[in-house]
Amino acid sequence: MSNIKIAIASDHAGFSLKEELVLFLTGKGLTPGNFGAFSAESADYPIYAKKLCINIQNCEFDCGILVCGTGLGMSIAANKFKGIRCALCSEPVSAVLAKQHNNANVLALGARIIGADMAKAIVGAWLGAEFSGARHEIRLRMISGFEGGGE
Question: Higher model confidence: residue 149 or residue 133?
Answer without folding.
Answer: 133
